[in-house]
Specification:
- The complex is a heterodimer.
- In chain A, helix 3 (107-122) packs parallel to helix 6.
- By secondary structure, chain A is an alpha/beta fold.
- Chain A starts with a strand and ends with a helix.
- In chain A, a hairpin with a 2-residue loop joins strand 1 (2-15) and strand 2.
- Chain A is globular, with a radius of gyration of 21 Å.
- Helix content of chain A is 34%, strand content 24%.
- Chain A is built from 11 helices and 12 strands.
- The relative contact order of chain B is 0.14.
- In chain B, 32% of the residues lie in helices and 21% in strands.
- The longest helix of chain B has 18 residues, at 193-210.
- In chain B, strand 8, helix 9 (193-210) and strand 9 (213-218) form a beta-alpha-beta unit.
- By secondary structure, chain B is α/β, with parallel strands linked by helices.
- The mean pLDDT of chain B is 91.
- Classes of the chains: A alpha/beta, B alpha/beta.
- Chain A binds chain B through residues 41-42, 159, 161, 189-195, 197-198, 216-220, 222-223, 246, 256-258, 260-266, 270-274, 277-278, 293, and chain B through 59-61, 162-165, 192-198, 200-201, 204, 219, 222-223, 225-228, 245-246, 259-260, 263-267, 269-276, 278-279.
């Protein structure tokens, strides 16, 4: 069942030097229970895509197209309707754990507020004791030790890993249809990062939650998600099941990126490198966005932009793969 | 200075660095409260051979950056001594300072935003009595060595450059004074995935061309495997495992190193096994072995007696009671 459908999404940011387009022709279908990794380098538009879905773009951002959640277009909804979608419909975990909770409210108040909102939206009544028990249960779900003690603390008394667990518990309390996690582990320690990734993955399958996991780290996305979406220069370059994308990348960018990961020691030889650097939105090349760095680029790549072709049930934006099929 | 090949370039003896955990004020003195210290680096003995790359692996807060700063004289040790070419550093600080350099993780923070690239790279030479002509020639050479287009970057400021270019500028500033020893603190973690391999190749090239000795501080295992000759694993201010890169990364002995390697996402390891708990406080480190609260193999002795770093195989050192038969 298709739960979230994005059709022809275009996102612009208004800047002093004019309007800059940052997302181009995003078409995407996410099924219920999918775990999708959105992978891209800085400036690829991955966070903008996440923010467009929850309609939290900065004031100078504008999205066109359709984002359909359960038959309702979010982009044409009023902001009052959108407020009701946030939390129970789509819950977003932000990158920096220390900015995502209110510093002057106790953890208990913030989590109880989430439960109250959930019941208010369902038009159900629930007493304080029941809600408290629910909060404690979710804190156990996210494996916080001594939830009864931690609940009375303020955010600054917790570590980054603990706060991120509280935020995930808040997400679970809302029982959202879709959870978007924007780099939830990049501010955390390596050993804590693994704990949070394992936790998100476990809860995702336990509650059959739809997960959009935004990251710049291909190896983190590999550990978390079942499907991968590779973004570059504001476009989807490749989309497919994780194992297939990692083991048999279709797009030259994905292939180059995977080849450039260090495997052995320097004594065994030089690393493969992608020449050049990721493009700036103000200076996107003509034709395919990847053409300046692509080892296989030919005449057509510098003139026309490839569309997202379907190849063996996967999707790739590259002329090479399309011509192989014809 | 002697250049005896048997003497390691850098050696530390019982190196210790304590920081005051909070301000120790007048009231604390009047009431006779004992000052609290953070034991950032605690009784560390390491050896770094000339022209080798040593990687220091550990979580944030394990003291690895403090150790790096001690070795380049940016911190004064609380106790212990550092030997440079076999001579105590405290006796000839000025001569050593000309031979050591450090490159930080985030070049946007470590480069002065108001200076152009030429002034940034030239600055270390202003300390020496050198003709302007020669200085500018050296700047040009340094920029070319790190693979920058000299005419493009010369009068630009850091904000006009990409992340990879900025890190190259930081490297050029480090190598212009012909150092012997360079500390690289997370040199690639602020960079995009497709740029990371370019910088790693550059580091290897520079080392082979100019014979530098590196201390690389990182928590990225793929980078460690690629760039290291030797690896030191640090946990809560202590070195807990040391040895040749192939031995430590392929057959880790200390339970912490084993768990760390299993818990870090990589393209070879999709199934993460996160380790329990969080890094300990360095103000009141756990008694006995500092890893025992998180260690699955801990037994009674670990809670009381601190293990010493011992050679368990030729060239492979571990601080763990499991390998200590005495």
């Amino acid at each position: 069942m298709v739960q979230l459908k994005i059709e022809d999404l275009q996102v612009y940011y208004k800047t002093p030097i004019g309007s800059i387009k940052v997302l181009y022709d995003i078409d995407l279908e996410v099924e219920k229970g999918d775990s999708l990794g959105l992978v891209g380098e800085s400036g690829s538009g991955k966070s903008t895509l996440g923010l467009s879905i929850v309609r939290l773009l900065p004031p100078n951002g504008k999205a066109y197209g359709k984002i359909i959640l359960d038959g309702k277009d979010l982009l044409s909804s009023s902001s009052a309707e959108m407020t009701k979608v946030r939390g129970t419909g789509i819950f977003m975990i932000m990158q920096d754990p220390f900015n995502s909770l209110n510093p002057v409210k106790r953890i208990s108040d913030q989590l109880l507020e989430a439960v109250e909102i959930k019941y208010a939206r369902k038009n159900e009544k629930a007493d304080k004791g029941k809600m408290y028990d629910e909060v404690i249960k979710r804190l156990r779900d996210v494996k916080l030790p001594d939830p009864e003690l931690i609940i009375n603390r303020y955010p600054h008394q917790l570590s980054g890993g603990q706060i991120q667990r509280v935020v995930i518990a808040m997400g679970l309390l809302f029982e959202p249809e879709i959870m978007i996690a924007d780099e939830p582990t990049s501010a955390l320690d390596v050993s804590v990062q693994a704990q949070i990734i394992a936790l998100i993955k476990e809860l995702q399958s336990k509650y059959n939650m739809t997960l959009l996991f935004i990251t710049h780290d291909l190896s983190v996305a590999y550990a978390v998600s079942d499907k991968l979406l590779i973004l570059y220069g504001g476009r989807i370059l490749e989309y497919g099941p994780t194992e297939e994308v990692i083991n048999e990348p279709l797009h030259p960018y994905t292939e180059g990126l995977l080849k450039s990961f260090p495997k052995g020691n320097y004594k065994e030889g030089k690393l493969y490198t992608l020449k050049g650097m990721p493009p700036l939105f103000t200076e996107l090349p003509k034709g395919c966005v990847f053409n300046p760095r692509c080892p296989y680029a030919f005449d057509k790549c510098f003139v026309d932009e490839p569309s997202l072709y379907e190849v063996d049930g996967r999707k790739v934006r590259c002329f090479l793969k399309n011509e192989n099929k014809q | 200075m002697k250049t005896n090949s048997d003497v390691p370039l850098i050696e530390t003896k019982n190196l210790t660095k304590l920081f005051l955990a909070s301000k120790y004020g007048l009231l604390d003195r009047i009431f006779g409260r004992r000052p609290m210290y953070v034991r950032a680096v605690d009784d560390v003995n390491i050896k770094i051979d000339s022209k080798k790359t040593v990687v220091l692996v550990g979580e944030s807060g394990s003291g690895k950056t403090t150790l790096g700063r001690l070795l380049v004289t940016l911190e004064r040790p609380t106790a212990g001594e550092i030997f440079f070419h076999g001579e105590a550093l405290s006796k000839n600080m000025k001569a050593v300072r000309e031979k050591v350099q450090i490159v930080y993780q985030n070049p946007l923070e470590s480069l002065d935003p108001r200076m152009d690239v030429k002034s940034i790279v030239e600055e270390p030479l202003l300390q020496k009595s050198m003709e302007r002509e020669e200085r500018l020639l050296r700047v040009k050479e340094a920029l070319e060595s790190v693979g920058l287009d000299y005419s493009y970057v010369y009068y630009r400021r850091p904000k006009d450059l990409s992340g990879g270019q900025r890190q190259r500028v930081a490297l050029a500033r480090a190598i212009i004074s012909n150092p012997e020893f360079i500390v690289l603190d997370e040199p690639t973690s602020a960079l995009d995935a497709s740029i990371q391999s370019q910088v790693l190749n550059l580091l290897v090239d520079l080392k082979e061309k100019f014979g530098y000795t590196y201390l690389v501080i990182t928590h990225n295992m793929m980078v460690t495997k690629y760039i290291a000759d030797m690896v030191y694993v640090m946990y809560a201010g202590k070195i807990i495992e040391a040895g040749d890169v192939n031995t430590v990364m392929k057959e880790p002995k200390h339970p912490y190193t084993q768990l760390l390697l299993k818990s870090i996402p990589s393209l070879e390891n999709r199934r993460l096994e996160p380790m329990a708990g969080e890094p300990p406080s360095l103000i009141n480190p756990p008694p006995g072995c500092r890893f025992h609260p998180r260690c699955p193999y801990a037994f009674d002795r670990c809670k009381v007696e601190e293990p010493k770093l011992k050679e368990v195989e030729s060239g492979h050192f571990v601080a763990c009671h499991l390998y200590d038969k005495s």
